[in-house]
Amino acid sequence: MNLDLSVLDLGELTALRLRSLYAEKGYRRFRMMKFEEYDLYSHNKDFLVSENIITFTDVTGRLMALKPDVTLSIVKSAREGEKRRVYYNESVYRPASGSFRELSQVGVEAIGEPDAAEIVALAEQSLGVMAQRHVLQLSHMGLIDRVTGGDRRLIRCIGEKNLHELGDNPDAARLIALSGAPDEILPELRPLAEKYGAIDALSELETAAKAAESSVIDFSDVSDTGYYTGLLFKGFVPGVPGFVLSGGSYDGLMRKMGRSGSAMGFAVYLDMLERLGEEGAEC
Amino acid sequence: MLNIALPKGRLGERVYGMLALAGYECPEVLEEGRKLVFENKERGVRYFWVKPSDVAIYVERGAADVGVAGKDILLEYKPRVYELADLRTGVCRMAVAAKKGFTDSGEHTLRVATKFPDIARSFYEGRGRDIDVIKLNGAIELAPILGLSDVIVDIVETGSTLRENGLEVVEEVVPISARLVANRAAYMFKRGEIDALVKRLGECND
Fold it and tell me: Helix, strand or coil for residue B166?
């Protein structure tokens, strides 16, 4: 029987392409259970995008959840010291526009000693599967935390590119202004990184930038959850009003779940692609 | 081509004036009529007239690349957008107001009537004050007059509406003005155009 791929919608086709890409690179398929114990999420609320979770009581009386997240489950199932490179294709259940929605996620997680350059390159290749033109935004919470001293108001302003509400904070203003091509921005970042003892963060950004062709350094990608404390990245394709890909290193989550070692990964939000191809990418 | 959402009304017309001065003119925009979309290919801009409280939604969802929204809307609905500039127009303040001579004894739950429940809640949470929020959609000044609420949290400009109704400002919550917002994804692909617009607006209006 000849397979007619034209019956697939863009999301399904993209999922297949991404899964082939990750399998090719040696990532193993991770299959999630349909439901997780609610406890996993209630103990890690800060890691989740939303506290709103669909729950039910199973036949043995345990409180279960329709999973809002995949990363937590993957970390939970990894043994201490275990190195893993996995990909997944799962549905997650999150509130959106006033009700719950089932969202389709394809993603990659590398637990143990993740190769940042490999993962960033893979993220960019994932974008390339979706659109010829794309942008991978690179940010780093280590640098942002050190420059702002963890001040949430400053972090929020940086996240909004809001210079006018910063007050007298020239270094935070610098983090907003320094946005653009890595070749231009990275050298300008060096004095700031040195001032705040964040040369490690700078070199992680340099490694990531080298691994991608269409990346920009831009610190408006912030995370104040305490789980993503290092490299952060988001992927955009023309015609989609928000990010289609989101990732970073989440050593903070590993610690919280009692694991040593590092972890890094990203997820692609296939539902964001629904509008692609409807009107043509750009106006 | 930049897609710009303008709030219908005086503020939007004033902001259009600022943009025209900065080189983004499209004179059709000010003509009488019901047209909602205007384009000036040479200047690379397309304008839309949008209900003021909807501008942030258009921008957040990418139907517009940039837009002008009041800080009150941004604080209440917290859209995921960049806030690139304070246009320093449409200046007013969000304030707590009550009948002249009102004092809050702190003895019972304060009834607060407002169009901005989230702003009101954050403000009083910061004070540790227990409140009962009554969400209304307009003519908020009526609420304390008729005893529906103890106080209101509302936008105050000159304060004349309050005074005419025997109300007075009790304290300021936050200053409000028109802000330039941008879609986060649009910025990744149109950063040059958007940065240029912000820069020229800033230069022209200093």
Answer: coil
Sheet holding B151-156, edge to edge: B131-135, B110-114, B151-156, B92-99, B167-176
Q: Are strands B66-70 and B2-7 parallel, antiparallel or unpaired?
A: parallel
The β-bridge partners of A110 are A85, A264
Give the span between the Cα atoms of B119 and B126, in whole angstroms.
Answer: 11
What pLDDT is attached to residue A29? 96
Q: Which residues pair with B69 in a beta bridge?
A: B179
**A·B CB contacts under 8 A:** 49
Q: Is residue B47 a contact partner of residue B16, using CB atoms and an 8 Å limit?
A: yes
Q: What's the rounded Cα separation, in Å, for the pair A213 and B62?
A: 25
Amino acid at B124: Y
Q: Are A105 and A70 in contact (CB under 8 A)?
A: yes
Quote the CA–CA distance of A153 and A157 in Å, as a whole number: 6
Would an 8 Å CB–CB cutoff place A280 in contact with chain B?
A: no
For A249, the token pair is 């290193």
What value of ipTM does the predicted structure carry?
0.92
Q: Which residues of B147-165 are buried (b: 16+ CB within 10 A; e: fewer)?
A: eebbbbbbbbeeeeebeeb
pLDDT in tens, B25-79: 998 888 888 888 999 999 999 999 999 999 999 999 999 999 999 999 999 999 9
**Tokens 């289609």 belong to which residue?**
A244
Q: Which residues pair with A138 in a beta bridge?
A: A217, A233
CB B43 within 8 A of CB B25: yes
Q: What is the pLDDT of residues A30-74, one digit of tens each?
A: 999 889 999 988 888 878 878 889 999 999 999 999 999 899 999
Residue B82, chain A, CB below 8 Å: the answer is yes
Tokens 């590092």 locate to A262
Query: Is some CB atom of chain B closer than 8 A to the CB atom of A197?
Result: no
